[in-house]
Amino acid sequence: MTRDELVRKLRNLRLLERRVRGIDAGGRTELWDEYFSTHEGARVRFPFRMLLVFDRESRERAFQEFLLALWVRESGSTSLASAQDRELLAMLGLDADASPEDVRSAFRSMARALHPDLGGDEVLVRELLEKYRGSSFGSRDSR
Known about the structure:
By secondary structure, the protein is mainly α. It contains 8 helices and 2 strands; from the N terminus they run ααββαααααα. It folds into 2 domains: 3-75, no CATH class; 83-141, Helix Hairpins (Orthogonal Bundle), CATH 1.10.287. Helix 5 (83-92) crosses helix 7. It starts with a helix and ends with a helix. The mean pLDDT is 83.
């Protein structure tokens, strides 16, 4: 990522925080200011120079950490599970904090058990597939 691209990305993250929190253009973006800065020597979680040398994956993790912190601060919830995710997790008998690997494993086990070719119920396996494909877990697998 070039310097200009990174500045643009950080500017967009700051604008996102302002929109989410309802802050005017001149208002202080407290969370962004804790995580990022484009000024030399600023004491933040991810200084600009560090972000420049990060590989793509590390940079994305930094941005995701910021977005999660913004979500938690604004919603008061640590669960990112959507309604469809919660339905799928309940159907699989998993907790809301289950990892994507746990969900995938439980889904595959249940799909195998419900598969009509193995004596399972076609209606139930289709319902399970629809919930999985509609969840954020299923959308990850389809990439």
